[in-house]
Specification:
alpha/beta; 20 helices; 5-stranded mixed β-sheet; 521 residues; 7% strand
């Protein structure tokens, strides 16, 4: 008789229960993101189900949760407002094909170029965004916020705050939820503490008939199975002109958020996901979602943290979350709609606390100022714009800082050899950032008639370095001096226009390296 190993049984139990916890937390988020995008709640719920199911089954990171996200919703809102929901479905399909293309081209590897300060900024920024999103639940729906009439009107902080007993009840239930999540694991780990907290608080609200908002107050989640539907848009170039820019932006945001979340789950679980496979799975999920009336999606850092912290590690956790969500839509909507929002807010607050890298406050004074600046910059841009812009800004700033630091490493040491020649020994990389400093080290008018420039301890990295050598050769030739260039690579000699014939070739000693220059094909 076949028997499962106890560890396998525990793993299956953890995956299923953590999937249930995630599914409960997915409901209000999917509904909220649908509202942000300007579409019906079921459009967000269908996206959460389909994207979550496909990526969990076929993606490159077991344990990671995907679904409708706010980062994508804020881009979609203008498209829906201007052209309608059918254009959104067509855009999601095209977005999926672009993501599949990225996976086929193995572009997922470029996520390795994201520096650690950018990663920290991404995590902290998203934690702040998740926190601010929950603050909206502390407001009165449909009323003008306290920032009305200011530049911040309509922002996430523009909330007409609850008052009196309603506010105290909400805060008390949120605090109770967080306390259960924190203290229950000290007593038992038989069930995920987040799930236990949601159940206990829900029973408390129903049993004592407490006056607080529930999921059903946000929207009804009752519906049927998603059905196949070809987006009703004209199949012509005008449609492509409308949807292509949105599809590119959405594909980029989706992949960046998914790959960064993948890296974060990798670090927590001490395992390694497959980025290119995740790109392909995200793309396939969005193609199918667009054909089944969903708004598309990507990895969700908050839900992924809930899953991992609840013990979900395998593919079953994500599959369970998607199937539980579908069950909620089909048969359990009356029960789910009675869950108090306070319980789900408490779960998300715990996620915020666990996601935010509190150690960044400790290390910020110890790391280089440039790294601290990048960390703060990426966090701020994530909060005030979106993730894709924040990561791109962080990578660009980090690259410029790196170039600036490398530019300081160029040194030119001059001496006179036994033949009476002026010898310059160049040390450090010669590239666009260091050419100015390099050129300032030479004085053709004061040098001997015979000049040697030795690149044994240097490396020409790009076209700017080649132009600097050519320009330097012109200065010496115009001054009537004899110039010798030694220890340059064969590629350098071929690419130098004016100084190529001044390079002295030594097959044994000359270095062999390549230059970032398009003319080489």
């Amino acid at each position: 008789m076949f028997e499962l190993h106890p560890s396998k049984v525990a793993s299956v139990k953890n995956d299923v229960l953590s999937g249930l916890t995630v599914a409960l937390a997915l409901v209000p988020e999917a509904v909220a993101f649908a509202f942000v995008a300007g579409v019906e709640p079921l459009v967000g719920l269908y996206a959460a189900f389909m994207v979550g199911l496909i990526t969990a089954a076929f993606g490159g990171r077991p344990g990671m949760i995907s679904g409708a996200t706010g980062a994508l919703a804020v881009v979609m809102v203008a498209l829906v407002a201007d052209h309608g929901v059918e254009y959104l479905f067509a855009t999601v399909v095209l977005m999926g094909f672009l993501q599949m293309l990225a996976g086929a081209l193995r572009l997922g590897k470029f996520i390795r170029m994201v520096p650690h300060p950018v990663m920290l900024g991404f995590v902290n920024g998203l934690a702040i965004v998740i926190f601010l999103a929950q603050l909206g639940q502390f407001g009165t729906p449909g009323e003008a916020g306290w920032l009305a009439g200011t530049a911040m009107e309509g922002s996430i902080l523009d909330v007409a705050w609850l008052e009196g007993q309603q506010l105290y009840m909400l805060v008390g239930l949120v605090a109770l939820t967080m306390a259960i999540i924190h203290f229950l694991p000290k007593l038992t780990t038989a069930i995920p503490s987040s799930l236990a907290a949601i159940v206990v608080v829900s029973l408390l609200v129903v049993g004592f008939n407490l006056d607080t908002r529930v999921v059903g107050d946000v929207a009804s989640i009752k519906g049927g199975l998603p059905s196949f539907h070809i987006p009703a848009v004209p199949l012509n170039f005008e449609t492509l002109k409308i949807i292509f820019p949105y599809a590119v932006i959405l594909a980029a945001i989706g992949l960046i958020e998914s790959l960064l979340t993948l890296r974060l789950v990798d670090e927590i679980t001490e395992t390694r996901g497959r980025g290119n496979r995740e790109c392909a799975a995200q793309g396939a999920a969005n193609v199918l979602t667009g054909f089944f009336g969903g708004m598309g999606g990507c990895a969700m850092i908050g839900q992924s943290m809930i899953n991992v912290n609840s013990g979900g590690r395998g593919r079953l956790s994500g599959v369970s979350a998607a199937l539980f969500l579908l069950a909620f839509i089909l048969i359990a909507s009356p029960l789910i709609e009675r869950i108090p929002l306070a319980a789900l807010i408490g779960v998300m607050f715990v996620v915020v606390i666990g996601t935010f890298e509190w150690s960044s406050f400790r290390i910020i004074r110890k790391v280089p100022r440039s790294d601290a600046l990048v960390l703060i910059l990426v966090s701020a841009v994530t909060v005030f714009t979106d993730l894709a812009v924040a990561v791109v800004v962080g990578v660009i700033v980090s690259a410029l800082v790196f170039a600036w630091e490398q530019a300081k490493h160029i040194r030119v040491i001059s001496k006179e050899d036994h033949k009476g020649s002026t010898v310059y020994a160049v040390e450090g990389p010669l590239f666009f950032g260091s050419v100015t400093s390099f050129m300032e080290q030479f004085d053709p008018a004061k040098d001997k008639r015979d000049v040697v420039i030795d690149f044994a301890n240097s490396r020409v990295a790009d076209h700017s370095g080649l132009e600097a050598i050519d320009s330097l050769a012109d200065r010496y030739l115009n001054a009537g001096k004899t110039l010798h260039l030694v220890h340059l690579s064969d590629e350098c000699r071929k690419l130098l226009r004016n100084a190529g014939n001044l390079v002295e070739i030594n097959v044994i000693e000359d270095p062999k390296y390549f230059i970032a220059e398009d003319s080489l094909g």
